[in-house]
Amino acid sequence: MGALLLRCALLALAAGLVAARGGGGGGAGAAGRLSPNYYRHSCPRVERIVADVVAAKQRANPSTAAGTLRLFFHDCFVGGCDASVLVSPLSADRSPERAAEINLSLPGDSFDVVARAKVALEVACPGTVSCADILALAARDLVGILGGPRFPVALGRRDARRSDARDVEGNLPRTNMSARAMAVLFARKGFTPRELVALAGAHTVGFSHCGEFAHRLYSFRSADGYDPSLNPAFARALQSSCANYRSDPTISIFNDIMTPGKFDEVYFKNLPRGLGLLASDAALWEYPATRVFVQRYADNRTAFFEDFAAAMQKLGAVGVKTGRQGVVRRHCDVL
Ligand code: HEM
């Protein structure tokens, strides 16, 4: 069984699953102020318009989905879901969230899909639909396209009037955090360890640059020189795939090496087998309070999908601005 899995992992690597790509941040509980019917009169086709733009973009560039899901997370955890992460450094007089180091790897396609939907909506219903709502809808739609759960998105978020790179620090998880530290960070935002694990299941899609996990591969303080919690064959395959990551920082590896393009529960099956890519993924298996949910989702895709859908709706309500607390920006990348 173990040998078979190893072979699968290596086959996956050998089959070209290693991708190379260029590099590209309140608490929950405000959902009551949002409503699925918010644009019923002002822009009744909003969901259809976003869905069409998103589907076309994903067809043209299949890495859009994962990038947009991550973009949504980084928006909501830094000052709430208010599209502040979308502001371009070129348009702002101070360094916006997008310029923070952790956001530099957010892929251009994820910003582009929101910009395209915004253009379509400005034609259909000018000045009406916020960029924050578009991002929430796009993330939901893209999860569905990849085979994940579908769920309703409450609407009515307003866009931020400010975006500051300095707000990012301390609000987004880092790969070097322990599961306990991640649980504390998520608790600050109103999320339980169970919701943390469900949301981390987003790593069933997309990829990570070698620089994010290279410390696990080279000069690690262990007999073999790599992180012993990694499956040995996987570690050696990663060592070889990432060998040139310093000269080519775009080299990336799929987060879920088994079924990288599918939104499913396999990410959780990978963790007990040492096939978690990031140290933060592996940590969820080491910590009892999170391990129990890793095991539950590994065994039960339905449980994962239900919890992920619920946690995403909660994520979409973090620190939202309504009414005069925000604006509807005409261009998502300009304040
Ligand atoms: C729990 C702590 C988390 C940590 C430490 C973490 C860290 C990371 C890192 C370092 C990457 C690789 C970025 C790159 O190299 O381009 C990544 C990718 C990704 N993350 Fe997370 N993340 C976490 C939670 C989440 C959550 C809650 C979501 C969404 C709900 C998410 C969605 C994603 C996605 C979809 C990707 C792939 C992006 C792509 O392919 O462009 N992550 N994450």
From TrEMBL:
The EC code for this enzyme is 1.11.1.7
Coiled-coil stretches, from where to where?
none
User: What GO biological process terms are annotated to this protein in UniProt?
Assistant: hydrogen peroxide catabolic process; response to oxidative stress
Where is the site labelled Transition state stabilizer? R70
Superkingdom of source: Eukaryota
Keyword Signal, does the record have it?
yes
**Listed GO CC annotations:** extracellular region
Q: Name one GO molecular function term.
A: metal ion binding
Q: Could you list this entry's UniProt keywords, alphabetically sorted.
A: Calcium, Disulfide bond, Heme, Hydrogen peroxide, Iron, Metal-binding, Oxidoreductase, Peroxidase, Pyrrolidone carboxylic acid, Secreted, Signal
The UniProt entry, under InterPro entries, shows: Haem_peroxidase, Haem_peroxidase_sf, Peroxidase_pln, Peroxidases_AS, Peroxidases_heam-ligand_BS, Secretory_peroxidase
Q: Where do the annotations place Ca(2+) 1 binding? A: D75, V78, G80, D82, S84, E97
Principal localisation: secreted
| Active site residues according to the UniProt entry | H74 (proton acceptor)
**Protein's recorded name:** Peroxidase
